[in-house]
Amino acid sequence: MIWTNDPTRLMLVAGISVAYALVCLAPYLRTRRKRLAAARARAEAAVSPGWIVSYASQTGNAEELARQTAAMLKLAGIPARLAELSELTADDLLGAERLLCLVSTYGEGDAPDGAAAFAGRLMTTALPLPRLHYAVLALGDSAYAQFCGFGRALDQWLQAQGARSLFPRIEVDRSADAAIAAWRQQLSHLAGTSDAPDWSAPAFDAWRLCERVQLNPGSAGAPVYHLALAPVSGVLPDWQSGDLVQIAAPADPDHPRDYSIASVPADGRVHLLVRLHRHADGSHGVASGWLTQQLAPGGTLPLRCRPHRRFRLEENADRPLILIGNGSGIAGLRGHLRARALAGQDRNWLLFGERNRAHDFHYRAELEALRQAGRLTLDLAWSRDGGAARYVQDLLPARAAQLRAWVADGAAIYVCGSLQGMAAGVDHALADILGRDQLDNLIAAKRYQRDVY
């Protein structure tokens, strides 16, 4: 080693050392804060262990409403334990007096990931709960045949166990304000207070469309566009990879659409990937048509960022990462890859599927550059190009040994893309390779996360 007394070099070495120490320290501090927060929550709940606020969220809506519910109870002097539904045990339910459940539905009536373990462990058994009083806020989308299917199933199971409903189940169609207001009103009666915190969602801010580029010219599929957006105020909000934005189209402002963010704050822009939806009669989707065909570059739109805690990296930031997706689902996975590149994390494996390699390889140059730099393992499936692996789920069986090795080495799995076909196919393939029990354990440990639609 060559040592030097040059002050400039010494300062440079010191700066690099401090920066490295901060990078190493950040994950520890995040974990420590979470443990301290959990300990505080347990201590508060111990004062009044009879109240539990539980949630099962796929995109974060139910979790945020549950946090607001717990805050309202606390304001009224009623400490309550806040917990994901799958964290609850039979003893928790037997010991509770009040259980408030805020749950979403995954796909056609299934339990979301945050409730899968609870549904499999408890809702398949009999559990006498005669002293339990409960309420259910069920979140769903009436576009699905099994609207609020899991919320209804949970309500029916609790009734069958002898638990008594505090008030009729409240169902929320696509975050409808009236239904959420009804839940808040019922809570006010329970808590004996009308001095409740503000439950309104953050206001929409004005953003500008800076760039719009079609990524798949010549594709046999619907056009897919890359959008770059910037706040009109010039103040960029903070977000994490995995988070969402909500955009309110002028023709339907009461039902904002969620889009995965394909960028990180260091990019200086919110990047989105929007596929133009065409109805059978040839008309365009309300939001996708406006964003890709009608809104002119330089025009403004109402947008707000929304945390998506079930798809953030958080505790998985330092793990090897397996990313699986198809179509426009590459947006959420690209956000993670950009975050990993900034953090110097190179154990990344992307399995991606689309129609044709020639036209539908979204962000091709960027992904191939990562692969060539040794920062990404890349496997691809093309449904219209022939070959055995036509869909992304078809890639998994041939790579079973590699997948098991990555999981054994601590890898987390993130899936983003279409609910129909892809998500179910990937889940079945993973269960065949790892075993359903191990896959359920990965869900419970938040090492198997999904953002599907």
UniProtKB/TrEMBL annotation:
EC category: oxidoreductase
One MF annotation (Gene Ontology) recorded for this entry: flavin adenine dinucleotide binding
Positions of transmembrane segments: 12-29
InterPro entries: FAD-bd_FR_type, Flavdoxin-like, Flavodoxin/NO_synth, Flavoprot_Pyr_Nucl_cyt_Rdtase, Flavoprotein-like_sf, FNR_nucleotide-bd, OxRdtase_FAD/NAD-bd, Riboflavin_synthase-like_b-brl
EC number(s) from the headed UniProt entry: 1.6.2.4
FAD-binding FR-type domain boundaries: 202-314
Residue span, Flavodoxin-like domain: 51-188
UniProt keywords, alphabetically: Electron transport, Flavoprotein, FMN, Membrane, Transmembrane, Transmembrane helix, Transport
UniProt keyword Membrane, yes or no: yes
Gene Ontology cellular component terms for the protein in this record: cytosol
Protein name in the entry: NADPH--hemoprotein reductase
Species whose genome carries this gene: Duganella lactea
